[in-house]
Amino acid sequence: MSVLVIRAHKRFAICRKVRLRKPGRRFVDGLLIELSLDGCRVSGVGAPAALALGDAVVLRVGDADPLEARVRWLRDDTIGLRFERPLHVAALEALIRQCRGETAAPAMPALRAYAT
User: Fold this and answer.
1) What is the pLDDT of residues 100-113, one digit of tens each?
2) Which listed residue, of 49, 76, 80, 86, carries a Cα 20 to 30 Å from 29's Cα?
């Protein structure tokens, strides 16, 4: 039996160490493995995180601005987070570049002026 899953947003494969923290708790390390406009998947969180469905967390990815999120699902040592405020496309692209070690955005092609 197969199950058709329709996603709201395209997901991007990432492999980046991150830190997440539940208010009043210490940071827990994890590995960001998937990223979209409205959420992400983090593996390697383990039991010390003591997270539950609906918990508010702060996700830190390198030196990017912290992202506020809620735990959407938990499975073994992997969690799904939904961002409190979805990312803008430009912010998502910048975060993907940072996570993949790319230094800058691709150069924009030169604009051509056309005469009438």
Assistant:
1) 887 665 555 544 44
2) 86
